[in-house]
Amino acid sequence: MATRRHDPSNAETLRMSTLQARHRGHNIPDGVTTFNEIEYDREGGVFLNRTKIVLLIIIIFLLSAFSAFIGRYTAERQLRQYIYRDSFVKKAESGVADNQIPFLAVEPESYKVFLDPKLYEADGTISKHDVDYSGRVEVIFRPKTDTSVISLHVGHLKINDDTMLKRRLSMDTPTEQVLKDDSKYELNTEIDEKQETLTVTVSETLKSGHYYSLFVNFTGVIGHDDHNEGFFKVVFDKKEAVKNQWYVATKLAPRKARNLIPCVDNPKHKAIFEMSVVRSKDTKVIFNTKKTGLIRPDSLGLFMSNFKSNPIPTDSSLELTVWSPDSTDSIEMITDVVPKTLDFMTSYLATNFPTNKLDIVVVPSEVMTTAESPGLIMIKDSILGTIDKSSIIEYQKSVESIVVHVVRQWLMPLRGLDRGSNEDKWLNEAIVNFLKIVNIDHIKPDWNFGKKFPLDTVQPVMFYDSWTNSEPLANYEQHTEIYKYISSVKGTSILRMLNHTFTESIFKQTLREFVHTEIYKYKDTISFWTLLDDNVRNKSVKLPESSAVLQIVNTWMKNKNYPLIKLQIDGDDLVIKQFRFGYDEPKPTNDWVIPITLTSGAAYSTTVWLENNPETRVPGYISASNGTWILANQYQTGYYRVAYEDALLDRISYEISHGKSFDEYIVAQLVGDIIEGAFADVIGFSDALGFLERVIQKAGPNPGYWNAVFNAFNKIEVVLHNTKHYDALSVYMETVVEKAYDMFQASTIDSPDKILGKMDTSYFAGRVELKKYVLWAREQFNNWKQTSTEINPISPNDRKSVYCTAMQYATKNDHRFMLTKYASSKWTADRKSIAKSFSCSRNSQFLQKILSAGEVKFDDLTDIWQSILDNPTAGQYPFNYLRNNWETLDQEYEETNVGLLSTMLHAGIRALNSLADFEILQSFNEKYFGNTASNRNPTLLEVLHFEEEILRQKIVWKEKYETVISSWITPKSAKSNLRIYKIEDGLKTKTENSKYENNKIKTGEEKPSVDSVKTEESKQENITPPKKDASEADQPVVVEVTKSLSNEKPEPAVVVSTDENGPSAVTAAATESTPTVVEQTKPATEENKPAAEENKTSVSEMKPTAEKNKSAAEEIYKPTAMTTAETSTPAMTQVEKLARPVSINEKHEPIIGAGPDNEVKGLKQETIEEKKPEPSKKNRYKRNRIHDNITN
């Protein structure tokens, strides 16, 4: 009944209702006076009539029913293959080693494990053989749907027949109470050995949501090695220092936890584990499950031993303990590095350490590989070192290894996940390596680790990624041995590029979110790229117009090789073009989305996106640079190389010679890009060599300069090795390394960088046989031999170079001494250093003994072969050894160590560089890997194809560049023989003639002194070269000699001795390492016959066709040019067999000074270049070989 206020017959009610309705915005026409005609609107409410209410209820019911149906249908589809027995086992995705069962119907929540290992013999000692262990596991689960089937992985375990199932009231019900339950379930157990599963079928249906306990008793084997990937045992009885020490440990790769206990062995499955082990009173047991919470079965860590514990204090609540046998030399590195790494990573990732404790177990290196699980790390003692006992290189590698193990703890949940795509499986290791770089830069800032990463790590990997046999990162499913080497560093380089492009703060925030939340949430790692994309856009960072972060990364994941960026000038614009780098001929492409970083001496720094386009322009950047240098990819933050056109390269060269804008790492990167660009035929080889010479002249006692120079010489050696010009190259390399050696000897070695620079220089000096270093190294080695104590007097930083140099000139007594020291070495790092030096020996019988593992440990063979691989001129002996012994080696190592065989093939083939070598390799390939071969290992076949491609290219390089390199190197080697040495009170000319029989320095043998030999220079009143003004300081040495002889009759380039029995000055300076140079001087001196009147050699004897009015510079230079022209003519018929598989371009660079019309022209140009104050923009040579078939 309506109230009076709302009585429809009340006129006042009608009037008030009308006013209120109009006030609320209702359009009520004038004249409406009845209540039924007004749409009354009560404030704050909704009027529903009966019909509307019924319809609303029906709609809600239908929506609920539809939602329930869809949910049940989806769940049934997901569970169907696991509920029904016929479809119980799901086949693993391609690329997974074994089958997996992604259980959903029955997924255990907890395991209670009891283990009883039978370790002891009757006499109380640890058994050295395989032993059994018995165990029982209580699997606590709650079915997600009604089912009568329970399945577990059991691996190679033996399952007893007393399996039983009990009802459990709750998760917390004690096991004793569960066992007292009288209820019984009839079970039918079935073991599938092929699928490695135990299937339990219950007579009645298990209800979803109810708790149950399945008790399984089993027996396993504790093996005596770690190849079982379960439980293994190690007993030390040979090495006295660790005698009677032992340990038992687990090593569980993804899907290998089934070999330890019955479980659901799936990387997606996590549960709580409680472990109990029977042990003796003196045995220590370490679990990683005590405080870890939910973990995957393959993350279980168990360690039993009689090792000693060493607690390490930290600044957090984390319990850090190091376990080691008594023989461990030192844990100082762990004490120094691990707490700092824990603190920094916790701060950087804004996430606490994943567990509340961390146990680090140090084990002898010869018994196992490293292993890790959440909260437990097992490492080799060989990676531990101290700064006093280890070289700085070994110490830094040890720190890297420790940091990587600790950083991986944060990323452990990613290990082995079944992601939706194989394309991102490289990301986990790339993140670990990226965090390693960031961490070491923080805890060891004086190492410059991040700046050196491109030079030490990226550049070598880019060489492997430059060939057609390389593979893209996304090819994880069928990855090869080359892929394993490339993927980690290439992935890390991509992350470095994104970190630099999107700023460090954005990239750090993404890593924090990924590690803190997303890594535990998603099944695949695409979330990382999604997070990065969101953070970039939220911060308004410029992205390519049509590309997301994932699209950018996909271009780097799915393309093999890497881009070559070419910079060109077009008016005021800078043109950037994209090519695919390759040594045959880089090809234009638009495959990559590339962030190009540009830096200039005057213009602004910027990042330009080259987005799926062969080229782009930067308007006005040339004018903005105001004639100064322009660099792309500074500090190699991007994974690509850069080629500069002539004018831009001139600006860079000028800055290196006269400016201070570039540090050693920028110059090192430039040398690498330019030398590789020359070998790829995109930069003129003459220009690349000139750039290298400019760097040599400018270089100071900084390791970055010399590392790049030595790497460039290693590459050039590949072309001239086993040619008549190699000795000239050796002379010049000796001159260059002497400059570096003297610099480091005279400078204060006050930083890790300078120590590393001195070590690299010493090693290179020993390899090229720098006399002063060889004599010093032999002296150090002899002092060691005469030491009566076990203390090695050679500094750890000098041992690598001293050992190798000693082996180069070793006698049989020296070989026996080194083998004795090797066998008795107690320090793993020093033992390996001695083993690596064995590869430097030139005694074939000794090498045969070493390579056949007759005198070395099996564990050191890989290091020895790797040392051979690192030597660019190792020679043919390693390959001949492989060819003669391959059947034996293949049978011995194919099943146990294919990696060693791969290293052998890499090292043996890499030193080959001639057409004859190629034919021998083809014969070897056909015999052992041809279609008729019985055993063709795909990994080794891939190595063969890779090395064959490199050998083909080296033959092409020799045909294309031998003439250019020899014409550049020969005059420098001749000038290097006229050096004047400063001795005590004045400048004296001193020459020595040191002859080595079979390239050996005999111990204790005096060298013949030739101090009494007078050269032509000493005859000229012993005057010193005139002082040079500033404009002359950078002129070539040839010009300097010309000025000193300006008032004399033009003399030949080679001066002879005034003593009838004395050798010429050139011969005396270069005898020990340059026999070919001596032969080249013979025509000029008539078989070294002493000169006649006034002890002068006639010009006509050297250059019968020379004009008499030539300048002295021409007289000196022309014999070199003639010799080059006569000896460097390419024989194209030698590569006819390679013409089909490899395209050989016969476009040679112009030879400076060659030919009668321009023999001094190149020299004068070089002199003018050195004197000019501004860089020239004029193209002097046709340098760039890229065919620009792209329309602008």
Automatic annotation (TrEMBL):
It comes from the Eukaryota. One of its GO terms (molecular function) is aminopeptidase activity. GO terms for cellular component: cytoplasm; extracellular space; membrane. Residues 1070-1083, 1121-1132 have a biased composition (Polar residues). Residues 336-556 form the Peptidase M1 membrane alanine aminopeptidase domain. Keywords: Aminopeptidase, Hydrolase, Membrane, Protease, Transmembrane, Transmembrane helix. Residues 998-1031, 1084-1096, 1104-1117, 1158-1177 have a biased composition (Basic and acidic residues). Residues 629-931 form the ERAP1-like C-terminal domain. The chain crosses the membrane at residues 53-75. Residues 998-1192 are annotated as: Disordered. Residues 108-291 form the Aminopeptidase N-like N-terminal domain. The keyword Hydrolase applies. The keyword ATP-binding does not apply. PANTHER family: PROTEASE M1 ZINC METALLOPROTEASE (PTHR11533), THYROTROPIN-RELEASING HORMONE-DEGRADING ECTOENZYME (PTHR11533:SF294). Belongs to the peptidase M1 family. This is Aminopeptidase N-like isoform X1.
